[in-house]
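User: Fold this one for me? It's SRCR domain-containing protein.
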Amino acid sequence: SWCSLWTWRRTHLVGRLRLANGGNSSCSGRVEIFHFGQWGTVCDDSWGLLDAEVVCRQLGCGRALSAPTQAHFGQGSEPIWYDEVACIGNETKLSECQHRGIGSHNCGHSEDAGVICEGKYRFLQLVSMLLMEIFHAGQWGKVCDDHWDLDNANVVCRQLDCGRAQSALSNAAFGAGVGPIWLDNIYCSGNEPSISDCRHSGFGVHNYGHCEDASVICELEGEVRLANGGNSSCSGRVEIFHSGQWGTVCDDLWDLLDAEVVCRQLGCGRVLSAPTQARFGQGSGPIWYDDVTCTGSETKLSECRHQGIGSHDCGHDEDAGVVCEGKLANSGNRCSGRVEIFHAGQWGTVCDDHWDLDNANVVCRQLDCGTAQLALSSAAFGPGRGPIWLDEVYCYGNEPSISDCRHSEFGVHDCVHHEDASVVCEGVEGEVRLANGGNSSCSGRVEIFHFGQWGTVCDDLWDLLDAEVVCRQLGCGRVLSAPTQARFGQGSGPIWYDDVTCTGSETKLSECQHQGIGSHDCGHSEDAGVVCEVSTATLPTLRPPLNITTPPGNNTGVEGEVRLANGGNSSCSGRVEIFHFGQWGTVCDDLWDLLDAEVVCRQLGCGRVLSAPTQARFGQGSGPIWYDNVMCTGSETKLSECRHQGIGSHDCGHMEDAGVVCEVRLVNSGNRCSGRVEIFHAGQWGTVCDDHWDLDNANVVCRQLDCGTAQLALSSAAFGPGRGPIWLDEVYCAPGSHSTASPTFPPVFSTDIPIVSTTSLPTPRPPGNDTGVEGEVRLANGGNSSCSGRVEIFHFGQWGTVCDDLWDLLDAEVVCRQLGCGRVLSAPTQARFGQGSGPIWYDDVTCTGSETKLSECQHQGIGSHDCGHSEDAGVVCEAWPPFPPVNSTNIPTVSTATLPTLRPPLNITTPPGNNTGVEGEVRLANGGNSSCSGRVEIFHFGQWGTVCDDLWDLLDAEVVCRQLGCGRVLSAPTQARFGQGSGPIWYDNVMCTGSETKLSECRHQGIGSHDCGHMEDAGVVCEGKY
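Assistant: Here's what I get for SRCR domain-containing protein.
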């Protein structure tokens, strides 16, 4: 219908920009944006350079020079779509910036905003050949060729993301420009960010009589093109650009997998054939590639294996070609554009008669672009040329290709090219692939599909849990490592995810928490990668060939086995080494602490850990460094079960090799904190004689084992007689001694027993306050409730607090579970329950939510923090027994003792009877006649409350619209746009992924936990119910 066609067209153009009334320049003028089928203007309230920069970027017009206001380029006449625009400057489109809401403003056209962008380079030939013009003083002008050289040209090519300069041309090589000459006598060092940052004579100062226009040719290394394919840009002889020259590819080993990569790189759909023997004529110039072997998953031909650039034994009679099946033309996106198909050796178009979504779905599926969003007619992506191959197409939607649908015969039609059919596909939203991984489809740069485009993932917070989800999604077995810093080369296109935080149990990467699709502060130098297990062939070369000096025969072991090297007579102390891929290697000491060392001691049967030495305390190892940034919870049975950066992934040298010292244990008891005392010496466990054995001695043992203070010092083999040597007798420990190894027993062993540094243990606090079990938690200062308060945990005989850095509901949930206090309600921060005293034991706690104890969660290391007690973390748990089911007459009364005072007592002015609802229900208030726009309110604990606008964005608003059945989101207004609410503020720092069905499923700071006032109440504007 015309209505639906109009909706499709309108949706396709939404968010497009243009600059009006800018004279001869397309890069300056009044800002206009397209919404709801109409162009409209932008109000200049809050308009600044950051906003203008986004406009210039979206239009490809270089940097922003100024952001004129007050209708500098004349007043517009259409609607005013945006007001109070607040871009952060890294958005790719103006529509991604925060604003007051589409159509919401308090402006007139006398306040229309404008931009002036720095400069734009006009392309005069297709392949990176440019006559330059830059924008200054409201006008485009030329650059003079005096002193024009490759350093200058390199700056231009870099500014345009066109690689290095191949040539710096003078004498108006691409024809003379018009307008003023803005720059002359330019001297660039080659590393300036833009041509105007180079030294020059000054804008408009030049030697006119000797001046000609400067030009450049940039090289796009690795670009491909198809030559001699007739009217088609999607079939022909394969040519690739290297070292400033186009060259061909030899057909030795050339097959469909190789051709498929070329078709993908060019956006030409699936491959039809891979012709050989110069089927499209012999090329000239170099033959760049031979023996090409692609896996088929690469995004560029240059990522495939080959014999080496320029290395071959071929002639041009072996030039390789490709024929790709179909393409969507005239769009920057391979999943949208004009439909073209290949028939009888020629590309042709499809007529739009009876063109609908069923037809478009077949095309999208055929191109691996998911389902169709739009089926466009009337040459929406411009008219094609050549034959019109199909007309009167009728598809059911499940055909394998468009040519399998019912249609008039090939070439039979009554159309012209202004009726060419087009589609917009959504892609396989959330699909992942690994690029540039060599022969393996299970290792490479992580790429994910969103909004019709492949993009990368930033490596901020990227770790094994995230990589594990990717491996699972691809069916590639266990994860081996999670490389960062573009280990598999830098990608191109958008960076879709940043700060990814998976729990490891998700089935798709898109299910993990992240900063928001397209929201990041990264460059492609931070692209994340994965290496999945599959087989050893999937592993990349992690380092240059290793200089292994380990003696022959030393490299036998079991995968994941550990040993301690260079520890003298003791097999329970030394440099930590672990066996992987047939080789022993060391562990880097970054983040190495007692929890990590404890796992090593357990794996070796060496009892409890005494210390975790760093900085190659036991000498520098050789061979590979297998682990870095090891983070054990302390409960693992093997070091290989601990979290780390990935096997072989590190930034260390052997001067950072980690070590352990294991020693004392208590045996013959079901409790690790009681039993017969045994110590390890000279490679053997032995006992301690009870002569002079007293509480001072026992206190040292208990403290050494992280078991608090001693209750009893037992003699006469109370836990049964031991066997083997008796290592110590006549032991005298002074009050406050820190190790049974401290001397005041016969000196025979005084040089052999390792001394534990007193700095590794805390100073004991006064007796009576510090009784507890290692890892036990309690909640302090919570009033009458034992299920809310400041979180405290017992370590090394002392209670200490937890810092609130990264503290959230998942962490608090574990505390509530450990205490048997039911579900978590909130995770207060900033010492909400008062400041504690004593040590701060944990910082940067990151629980998955499934742990049974807080001590099992990942953290920075016991006692390692950068916090003060003003950052002590707290929890509020629901408390048992659970409340009875909620209904209209039985709403649970939440004891005020179980909740902290979140604010001064709330002034609830909601009319009587207004507080009926279902837990987690949402409504929109104060939205006028619309039930699909207004202030967001959510029902908790028998009361409606609002949502704070901190971090509030379109993804959050989208969930509200979905929950209410109000269609798509249009905007996410902030600053109490729909008036200030009253009553509690239930949510703050809401972070939805956009896929949730209810707002209550999104991540937030905790119910009732916030630092907001009602002037920050969040709102939504949804499209409306149908």
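One thing worth pointing out: Residues 163 and 220 are 6 Å apart (CA to CA).
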